[in-house]
Amino acid sequence: MPCILLDTATARAMPWKNGGGTTVELAISPADAGLEDFAWRISTAQVAVDGAFSSFPGIDRSLAVLAGDGMCLQHADGRREMLLSGDAIAVFRGEEAISAQLLGGPITDLNLMTRRGVWSHELRLVRLQGEQVLVNDAELLLLWNAAPEALHYQLPEGGQQVLAAHSGVLLENEQGRLTLESDQPSPLYVGRMRRG
């Protein structure tokens, strides 16, 4: 799996675990895993109504809003967290009881999940404009282009690649320096996944 393109148009759509909506599964490991036994999972979903998140015991989650006005997360301890498009990323445990309230209309989100003790991850937002170097030390690297224009990236040992608007790529064992380039200001989500 040196390079997997993540495209919402060709990925598998499936119901949420709690049945409250639909998610698009962009990538999962193992490839034949289900929602109860995956090691890691990358997905995107449209959230059209307020409601509770599905429970994923033993899973660490990162969630970002890609499009729409955003939503407010109500945590089990009473804490409220605002998630806006192209802004902060929520990090929480999958077993935590969380509900979401939309701030306007429907939103689209990006969801990265890893099984605690098997994989770990971090998801960050990079505001890309011009050329920028990204140093990668992770086994798996997720790049998600949230901008309306394509951007370019160059692998440590390869030629220049194009990452289309509103799509992603999952890179395996591409440690080193990647060069990213965009003509316009581009929000780029960068996820690093490591074993253990």
TrEMBL record:
InterPro entries: RmlC-like_jellyroll, RmlC_Cupin_sf, Uncharacterised_HutD/Ves. Pfam families: HutD (PF05962). It comes from the Bacteria. This is HutD family protein. It comes from Pseudomonas sediminis. The lineage of its organism: Bacteria, Pseudomonadati, Pseudomonadota, Gammaproteobacteria, Pseudomonadales.
